[in-house]
Amino acid sequence: MVDSGGSYKGMSSDNVKGLVLALSSSLFIGASFIVKKKGLKRAGASGLRAGSGGYSYLLEPLWWIGMITMIVGEIANFAAYAFAPAILVTPLGALSIIISASLAHIILHEKLHTFGILGCALCIVGSVTIVLHAPQERDIDSVLEVWNLATEPAFLFYAAGVVGAAILLIVQFVPLYGKSHVMVYIGVCSLIGSLSVMSVKALGIALKLTFSGTNQLGYPQTWVFTVIVLMCILTQMNYLNKALDTFNTAVVSPIYYVMFTSLTILASIIMFKDWDGQNGTQIMTELCGFVTILSGTFLLHTTADMVDGESKGNLSSENHLLLRLPKHSEDSKGFAQEGIILSLRRQESAKSPRPARQIKQQEEDLEAAVPLRRQESSSRS
């Protein structure tokens, strides 16, 4: 916390509590991504994949362990919002990305490039910057105060826009582009997630006041916020499962973090007016910290498919394109890869210095391999 004169005065006790809870939350949530992914893989091997609309993962114990781990993390996150402003708590979710990417590298063998490690470091630096300059939590004495903030015209306009955009994505874009564009599933999660956090914060404040002796459970607004929280979390869980099952974890986690955090901070600024009482220097420092975190997540995203030592850090165009494909069954993946490689080599043949006879022979070998793979697949089935 920095005063109006620009000197550091230390964090308030509530902000410290929120910080500890947020760090614990990141640890549990980061680990849960990996455990759930392992469960989704097992479920997909014996039933319809979540990315194809299946729910066989509900019978997989490993997925439930991951789900319980995530719930513990979300409970800690829930409590953190009751003590600290969203602009402090939400960016610390970057630590869950670091944990998730590291565990994906170790357990799922999803390679983490050197630049990905640099991205993790940037996330940490940005998080520390925001922690040191975050605003204090505003004093709220009743859930009715939160309700009044939520029903102001500015936030109602934001909420209506978010719900409308989410419905448009679900109805219009998910059926067409959900399995090929990661932004569709994550867009739904992030939009609904920003409203979820505002409702979680409202409910957390109500419970904190109740536990401190001022009962808020008699107000209908408390239960309205509870219903909104449940609806939002169920929607987020559904589409996050689809995203995790369809795309690489090291890609899903940072993109989801960037979108979710950006929209949540925007919603908090509109609803709770976090920047009121802060000067321009403090606001700019927080923005710089947030941009630093975004830079780190961008590095994690763009280098997720890179492996140290491969072509001196540059992937071939064939491998890079194959790594960007969504995940499907092994046979269909093999057919697609052969077709793509054949197409790429035909495109490169005009520029290649190799003899035309050698190029022609390689193309014929690849064309012959495709029906052979199909025959082998049919005999196995």
From TrEMBL:
The gene is LOC104736961. It is a multi-pass membrane protein. Belongs to the NIPA (TC 2.A.7) family. This is Probable magnesium transporter. Residues 346-381 are annotated as: Disordered. Homodimer. Keywords: Cell membrane, Endosome, Ion transport, Magnesium, Membrane, Transmembrane, Transmembrane helix, Transport. Its main location: membrane.
